[in-house]
Amino acid sequence: MPARSAAATGKHPVPRPRAELPAATGELLRHGTLDFRMALLNSASRRLGWQSSAAWLAIAAAIACGPIPEATKRSAEIGSGHDADVAAVSALVGRYVQSINDADTALAGDVWLKSDQVSFINPMGHETGWDAIVANVYEKAMRDAFSERKLVPLDVAVNLFGDTAVAEFNWEFDAIRREDGVAIQTKGRESQVCRRTDGGQWELIHVHYSGRPVVEGQQ
Questions:
Q1: Is the pLDDT of residue 20 over 80?
Q2: DSSP state string for 19-62
């Protein structure tokens, strides 16, 4: 026998009691951290169940639309800025590597701070100033000495200290000597110091590289 509607019977359904969020829970959902909000959500779901759409909507709105505490905002901003700067310095290392591989002084000019104070320390000498680095590293040591160059950085690590960054990595360098066509390979380690400009860009100000440490019993 088909069920009759409430209008046909003249009776009205008794409304179910609404499941309400406790006031304290609502306040914490509005002002707690996201992790804390999620913990409260799990607790409320166990106590209220999801039978009440009003309870569900109240909880979801509090989590999605509640103001994010200032401390959480600052943490997110710091984390985001840190990641962006690490990525920017890593990209700078990549452009430096390309400038060495191509012996490209124009690209190097976009990587380095053009200053008399920048420096480059290596087993062959200690260059001070942008002009000396161009003449003795890019032109004499790279362009004139080798017909082909391939510098490969390994395990790049970047550490930030405010507007200063230090990049460290091991490397392998394969090249063809221009004078006799002999292929060579050397391996070393390197540290680079970069600084952030007023415009937010990173520039290289110092390089120091050397051979890898000699392990006893190995050459």
A1: no
A2: -PPPHHHHHHHHHS-HHHHHHHHHHHHHHH-SS-HHHHHHHHHH
